Amino acid sequence: MAPNKDTSLGYRFGMLARLNLFFLNEQLKPLGLSAGQVPCLAELLHSNAPMTQEEISSSLAVDPAATARTVDILIKKGLASRQINPENRRQKLVSATTKARELEKGFFDILRLVEDNFKTGITDQEHQDTLNIMDQMIASARRRKNERQ
What we know:
The relative contact order is 0.11. By secondary structure, the protein is mainly alpha-helical. The mean pLDDT is 93. A hairpin with a 2-residue loop joins strand 2 (80-85) and strand 3 (88-96). The chain is built from six helices and three strands.
């Protein structure tokens, strides 16, 4: 039997993701960014030290090839740099550039603005409860993923 969209988490996650992409792309256009670059750039901006592409991929639960493509785009835009890890020459370290750091406040302001689209009519407690439940779901899914690898 097909999943019922009235009770399906997947349907709701997909709908939220598509709406989030719409709002992000709309707001990021003036910065020359797209929604697909947000997770990687945010990860680099949150990090105080260079990260390997493997660390970025693992943190975001993204395929390493997709991470490499996104990093390439961010490098072309001058928002990231990649260099060989002096401690392990097979690894590449990725960092946010000065240009990215200059965009940081506006970038995170946009992310907060987009998030506000989803919080209208929701109390602070409901918001916190939703975050807690989603964190539990993410942890559960990560455990299942790790079991399969």
